[in-house]
């Protein structure tokens, strides 16, 4: 039985969400920055960690400058 990459506890078949090639608990598949719950396949990944597409991923890792990446009002410190 695989372990969840976030909490390291076993993931049972009934509660599993598969994303980024790993099995997660549904409550553990969250954005690393804002902690928003994510659905498998509808998020971005950076260094094996999940991020919501907007605004977190585009603000942290997208192109910089005003009007780029669709998240110009969100400025996060890395």
TrEMBL record:
One MF term in the entry's GO annotations: metal ion binding
Keyword Repeat in annotation: yes
PANTHER family xref list: CYSTEINE-RICH PROTEIN CRIP FAMILY MEMBER, LIM DOMAIN-CONTAINING PROTEIN C
Keyword Metal-binding among UniProt keywords: yes
Keywords: LIM domain, Metal-binding, Repeat, Zinc
Protein name, UniProt field: LIM zinc-binding domain-containing protein
LIM zinc-binding domain ranges (all copies): 2-63
InterPro entries: Znf_LIM
Gene3D superfamilies: Cysteine Rich Protein
Pfam families on file: LIM
């Amino acid at each position: 039985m695989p372990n969840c990459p976030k909490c390291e506890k076993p993931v049972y078949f009934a509660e599993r969400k598969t994303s980024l090639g790993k099995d997660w608990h549904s409550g553990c598949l969250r954005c690393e920055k804002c902690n928003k719950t994510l659905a498998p396949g509808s998020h971005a990944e950076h260094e094996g960690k999940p991020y919501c597409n907007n605004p977190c991923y585009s603000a942290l890792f997208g192109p910089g400058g005003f009007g780029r990446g669709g998240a110009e009002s969100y400025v996060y410190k890395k």
